[in-house]
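Reminder to self: tokens first, then the designed residues, so the page reads top to bottom the way the pipeline ran.
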């Protein structure tokens, strides 16, 4: 039988600063996309493609091959480290877990996109790690984990929709050449 001392502290709803519990260090989300690996890789290999509000939009991207400065017209400028691009299977980046700024500003998260063929499409999986080392403040760490956890579901839908758009553009272009 559990006693009250066995139960974790639960913040009262009236508390302005609830006590945060430690967060997992990793988020993993997947989606099936009816497109080829090359099409999906073209999307996920663009540094910062996932910085948006649920709809794909163009960014200004300046890159030296190792670090990209991505400017989003709404959210500002982000530095994203390019760790690995293995076409058409994997793209790995470092970023500040959702904050604008330079990579030297704070500990970084690693974001890995993997593309695995599946019947007539692919399964795209995103894995973001590094939450345990982000903020010293547990409340901020929890907030960032929860925001990114929900955000990746939205961003994978953006990738699926963008792949559909690219395939339609390719189909229309191919159809006009005939």
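Designed residues (178 positions):
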């Amino acid at each position: 039988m559990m006693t009250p001392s066995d139960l974790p502290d639960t913040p009262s709803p009236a508390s302005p600063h609830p006590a945060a519990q430690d967060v997992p260090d990793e988020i993993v989300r997947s989606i099936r996309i009816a497109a080829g690996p090359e099409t999906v890789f073209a999307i996920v290999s663009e540094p910062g493609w996932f910085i948006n509000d649920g709809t794909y939009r163009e960014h200004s991207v300046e890159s030296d091959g190792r670090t990209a400065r991505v400017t989003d017209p709404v959210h500002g400028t982000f530095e994203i480290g390019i760790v690995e691009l293995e076409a058409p299977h994997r793209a790995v980046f470092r970023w500040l877990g959702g904050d604008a700024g330079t990579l030297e500003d704070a500990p970084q998260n690693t974001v890995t996109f993997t593309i695995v063929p599946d019947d007539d499409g692919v399964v795209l999986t995103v894995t973001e790690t590094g939450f345990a080392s982000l903020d010293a403040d547990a409340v901020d760490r929890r907030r960032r984990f929860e925001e990114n956890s929900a955000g990746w579901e939205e961003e994978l839908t953006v990738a699926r929709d963008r792949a559909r758009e690219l395939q339609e553009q390719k189909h229309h272009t191919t159809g006009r050449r005939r």
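The first helix runs from residue 37 to 44.
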